[in-house]
Amino acid sequence: ERGEYRHYMLKEIHEQPQALADTLEGRISGGRVLTQILGVDADALLAQTEAVHIVACGTSYHAGLVARYWIESLAGIPCTAEIASEYRYRNPVVRPGTLFVSISQSGETADTLAALKLAKARGYLAQLAVCNVPESSIVRESSLVLMTRAGPEIGVASTKAFTTQLAALGLFALAFAHAKGLDEARYLDGVRQLEQLPGLVAETLKLDAEIEALAADFADKQHALFLGRGTHWPVAMEGALKLKEISYIHAEAYAAGELKHGPLALVDADMPVIAVAPNDALIDKLLSNLEEVRTRGGELYVFADHDVGSRVDDSRTLVMPACGEIAAPVVSTIPLQLLSYHVAVLRGTDVDQPRNLAKSVTVE
Ligand code: F6R
Prior knowledge:
Number of helices: 14
Largest sheet: 5 strands, parallel
Number of strands: 12
Distance between the termini: 31 Å
Enzyme class: transferase
GO molecular function: glutamine-fructose-6-phosphate transaminase (isomerizing) activity
Oligomer: single chain
Shape: globular
Bound molecules: fructose -6-phosphate
Helix content: 40-55%
Keywords: Aminotransferase, Cytoplasm, Glutamine amidotransferase, Repeat, Transferase
Order of helices and strands: HHEEHEHEHEHEHEHHHEHEEHEHEH
EC number: 2.6.1.16
Strand content: 15-25%
Organism: Coralloluteibacterium thermophilum
């Protein structure tokens, strides 16, 4: 039931602290990820894994892109993330020692399921499913399973499924990286960030009223550009997808470093530019990209980490809690969900049932 909430999407956005806590429950102990989360043999399997192929669609693909950054940077193991409808038709090359990972909220997405079936014939070490529906086809076809525990997601636009996918993939990346010899301090810090996620997300949800006020600026816009770097590039992609899906505003996401290679030509006073600015190694580069937008008269909206906020000289800056590399993409997603929700409400669209879209895409 929607209860006090006007839409399922809003309810599901606000359920995220609980959904994240549920997804982490019983999977961390004494500050460490329990390696049994993937099943009993996972230790030996992770030790053998020399490459990871992640396959998914839509929002779940964006979770895979974030995980790819984590896996390469923490575990030092090559990782690709790919759209299932491309993977399944392109004859992927699979070297020995490769783990296949599918990500799906429903567990029934036709392209993801077909990719998994193809993968089973391609000599992967194992097929891991990160999924929200225990009795789904994708779970049944996989040899390893890591469930997200988001609970039923009714809104067509995915919210809590995405952030719980990130939490599950964070657990996986840290467990895997630990098996591959990740520096102990960085490992423990990553696990601590996961444990802090429910609280950090609850804190970020308090920005709701401020974001609702910003939404008025977008209601009459035709286009929007989302920018990020590193793990925040896929977060920007997810922000653009949410805005497209429910408000029908054309939105694109770019890695901020690509601005000069084309999209800067679009920037003018009618083009809102939304940037996610975590406090990471690339922040100085991002801030200089934003300066380029500002000097072209672009309307800039910045969702900034607490420690970055004071460096962004703009009234349309929203300050989020300070976060590390694992928590930041999850936390940064929250304001983007709220922004697209409020813009859609102002535009009077059917938020929970956007036109032309289905919750579960069981045909190609
Ligand atoms: C976007 C959205 C879709 C799904 C995609 C994959 O808000 O919901 O892009 O993410 O259809 O669905 P699952 O995760 O069920 O495989």
